[in-house]
Amino acid sequence: MTRNHPFQRVLMFACLAVASFSLQAQKYPYQNPNLSPKERAQNLCGRLMLEEKVGLMMNFSRPVERLDVPVFQWWSEALHGVGRNGNATVFPITMGMAATFDTLLVEKIFTAVSDEARIKHNKAHRLGTQREMYQGLSFWTPNINIFRDPRWGRGQETYGEDPYLTAVMGKSVVRGLQGPADSHYQKLLACAKHYAVHSGPEWSRHRYNAENIKLRDLHETYLYAFRALVKEAKVAEIMCAYNRFEGKPCCGSDRLLQQILREEWGFDGLVTSDCGAIDDFWKDYGHHYSKNKTEATSQAVIAGTDVECGSSYGSLVDGVKEGRIKEETIDKSLCRLLEARFRLGDFDDPHLNPWNRIPEERLCCKEFADLALEAARKSIVLLRNEKNILPLSENDTQGLYIMGPNANDEEMQWGNYNGFPLHTITLAEGIKTINPSATLIPWKRDVQQQVEAAANAKTVIFCGGISPRLEGEEMNVNEPGFKGGDRTMIEMPQNQRDILAALHKAGKRVILAICSGSAMGLVPEQQSTDAILQVWYGGQAGGQAVAEVLFGRVNPSGRLPITFYRNVDQLPDFEDYNMEGHTYRFFRGEPLYPFGYGLSYSKFVYGKPRFADGKLTLSVSNKSKRDGEETVLVYLNKVGDTDGPIRTLRAFQRVEVPAGSTQAVSIPLPDSAFEWWDVKSNAMRILPGQYVIQVGNQRLKINR
């Protein structure tokens, strides 16, 4: 929660309200809000029958009326706004948020999201509709898997390909969703997913076995963000993935769920399965790990999966009767679930909980709409700007045309796992708001028709790319270049490429605004366009943000959180999870646009960096006539570490630099920034030695 949240003062009185709770209405100790959540959970668990316990361990947790245990929904969505639950503020997709490199902004966004989530839950509670899907207080976000390959359709749900960036963004999400750590009642439950070693392909995720993963890749890349969210952000939930890890389904992996998660990291929260993941243990299409459902569910709970998204856990009753699992093991999982619910205030008088007093007027309010616009503005990455064609002049009303499949597509901008905004500003609407004379050409796939329709154009803004209808989670898509929600090629659809080439040949100035959730192969477009903007799926205000950048009302400041490769020939096999050759950290070729790339209408010059007392200092000068924001990215490399990353991000900072001025920048590089893989102990350690700090095009060698 940000310091200026309007309900901060309400929280100060929460403890007083709890203390005044009338004990006369209490029948049992677990109903006493003055006891700790752990005490209350243990007391309630001891009063439940086996069938009742099992009923509480599925995503739709059935009520136990005899003990006044209410219904609870473990599955709700808030990927980039409250999802699948009616009207809500729709922010840019998380990949767009990552492109902002603004952790404070992301925390503000998810503080707004958690406000809207509480409002919707409170309303459902009043109306008695809390049994319906997606009405609960447990939200299965953030997705902190590493986006190791641009072909993965769900990469749009992540925060990019870098472990450090993913970790700091993920921590901001958790803080925004769960609220202040010292609150008597937790605001929501956040969930870090999908644990672990999971990032496509979609078509094989229910049977794939991630094996022979180097220990270094496992801990330094795939587990890095999970550990940060557990140890530093105190995330409430972990979701185990569909795939196997070293032969065992992730939801049945004692190494992942016990040894690493609980013993090494000290996680005391709950683990949920992905939806249907327990069925993957034993059904024909899955892992062939378990003989039947009863064996599968018993194995999952014994390994540490506390709640199932699905219906298989009903067989745990038979598991106890057959001696496959002890009831005491079920109790251990159930107590973790109940403790989380008590922290939310789920069993208490609603009037005691300050989160229940958030005004309904804040749902889809102007403050949140403005926040969505700010995020969309900061997410846009300027990739190409030949002869400074951008920004366009607002006074040039002659010959400006808009075309492309994404020019007037609202739903495309919502991304996936989305809510529904009150109003969406499309790219065409945003452009025509600033320049009403612009002509919108209806989209057709025919090259000749499109070029003929733009015969009088001087400048064409082509709104192209792909959409969430083509890339996403386990989809049935029959289009060239796509398979099961993933991609088999990374270029734009061929007809779009042909139209761009024809427009260029006809002498038009071509500005390409690309909508996508991941990297695009844009080699031909280096010749057929004059400017390229990567605009992602920009949420409800995406069109306005794009227009403001095009016409110079906003100076672009986004940076790529992923590598833009030239084509799939530069990529290793999609199912190869070892990191060599994947992402900027281990890719030794020449990308089209590297991680961290992004142009500005300003020109920034870095001064000589210095490192002392745990801080990197340097100056950033704006050698232009436009105010701008620069993101200073700080990379490290350990001298002599030939098996390690070529370079890896360990700090960054956005800096506002007025035109013609110089800003002094100080970026902390604490000991944790020098945590490196230790080959002697096979673990991450803060290692002494020589390091190279890279910032901009400058390098500084230091001893630690």
Give structural attributes.
alpha/beta; about 700 residues; about 30% helix; six-stranded mixed sheet; Rossmann fold; 21 helices; Immunoglobulin-like; four-stranded parallel sheet; TIM Barrel
Structural Rg: 26 Å
What is the averaged pLDDT score? 96
Number of strands: 27
What is the fourth-level CATH superfamily of the largest domain? Answer: Glycoside hydrolase, family 3, N-terminal domain
Determine and state the CATH class of the largest domain. Alpha Beta
The number of helical elements comes to 21
Helix-strand makeup class: alpha/beta
Q: What percent of residues are in strands?
A: 15-25%
Number of domains: 3
Query: What is the helical fraction, as a range of percent?
Result: 25-40%
* Cross-sheet strand order for the largest sheet: 10-17-16-13-11-12
Reported for the largest beta sheet, the result is: 6 strands, mixed
Give the termini separation: 35 Å
CATH architecture of the largest domain: Alpha-Beta Barrel
Question: Can you describe what's shown?
Answer:
There is one protein chain. With 704 residues, the chain is α/β, with parallel strands linked by helices. The chain has 3 domains: 8-359, TIM Barrel (Alpha-Beta Barrel); 369-586, Rossmann fold (3-Layer(aba) Sandwich); 604-703, Immunoglobulins (Immunoglobulin-like, Sandwich), CATH 2.60.40. The chain has 21 helices and 27 strands. The strands form 8 sheets. The protein has a 6-stranded mixed β-sheet with strand order 10-17-16-13-11-12, with helices on both faces. β7 and β8 (248-249) form a beta hairpin. α14 (366-379) packs across α20 and α16 (427-434) packs across α20. The chain is globular.
